[in-house]
Amino acid sequence: MALSRRVLLGRLAATGAALTATAGPAAARPAHGGRRRVHTGFDRLAADGYRLVDGHTVGVVTNPTGVTQDLRHLVDVMHADDRVRLRAVFGPEHGFRGTAQAGGSQGRYDDPATGLPVYDTYNKSGRELAAVFTASGVDTVVFDIQDVGARFYTYIWTLYDCMVAAVLAGKRFVVLDRPNPVTGRAAAGPVLDKAYASFIGREPIAQAHGMTVAELALLFNGEFVPQAAGRPVELETVRMTGWRRTDFFGVTGLPWVPPSPNMPTPDTALVYAGTCLFEGTNLSEGRGTTRPFELLGADGIDRRWAAAATELDLPGVHFREAYFTPTFSKFQGTTIGGVQLHVHDPEAFDPVRTGIGLLVTAKRVWKGFAWRPDHGIDRLTGSATVRTMIDAGAGPDEIVAAWQEGLRRFRTVRERYLRYR
What we know:
Elements lengths: L4 H11 L25 H7 L9 E6 L11 H6 L5 E7 L17 E2 L6 E4 L5 H11 L3 E5 L10 H15 L2 E5 L11 E4 L14 E3 L4 H11 L1 H5 L4 E5 L27 H10 L19 E4 L4 H9 L5 E8 L11 E8 L7 H15 L10 H6 L3 H7 L4 H7 L1 H12 L6
Helix pairs in contact: 4-5, 5-6, 8-10, 9-10, 10-13
């Protein structure tokens, strides 16, 4: 028997899914009509007959996002091609095939599909990671992972750690480029203070860096790798064609594969550089729902938070009072209140400023607000400044103003390494 509309909507609400009626503004859409089609670094490497790795033994650092236009994984494609001497795969956080949740990996195993040895890179760096590259027997390490544009997304630091380790192990390094899904228009947010360096921020870049992975590799190699490894890595980058700095993911014509379990859509990536800051608090950042990082909340929060956030008049976004029940992570199995972000104008939307505004208003309207005891918020923002200013009662404008000088300096450095105009 068909469900009535009322019953169906009631069941959806009970799950806490908080689904929107239409796809968000940055949602991936199939290429058709006059849409431009982006060709990734791997597309170009393959189209050129793999000449860049001809005669080399190759290992690939990748995850489920390393796919072709028709969703075949590049490891499967390269393994089946006699022109490529593929000998190893290196898996980051969540693993090569993506079976692990946040903070996990797949360990060392042989890939059932190809028989290739898969080595775990997660939480490895320096000499330890260099030893993994040496043990693999490859002479060229290829990197191909979809990034989301935020400093604390760990794959860019896997890139950095692998570049340093490649120097120490005497390996070539090749980066195959993919789009920054939230555009490469500008950098935004605070720049990391090295005193707060961790795996969610090794070096001083902005919270929203506005670069592709190949551009980041060039910046890392020019500014940071020589300090960590004694010299730059022998680096090659393969650029995309068809991508412009103003492109959101939806116009690329590329398929979206979740880079991690809690990054299901390009809409998630659009807000992530701001709302991931809630990982540093006792509020849920929406893990365990179908809209992670778009849904935020806690037990005891009500409509007052959405009202306070709306009063900030932040550009490009609306805030809706929302109630949801996470299936795992914070508040698992408990119905909690909070907000859902609805980005209606992605070009005007500033995720970092929005995240700060939401932190400020959450602390003002909910007496249960608390930072994580380990001050994880400081590692996320890159210093203690945001936390201490919010605790002192500062508003969003004052907090944003505090990081502008460091951001200006980073933008000057960043400009030297941009490859798409």
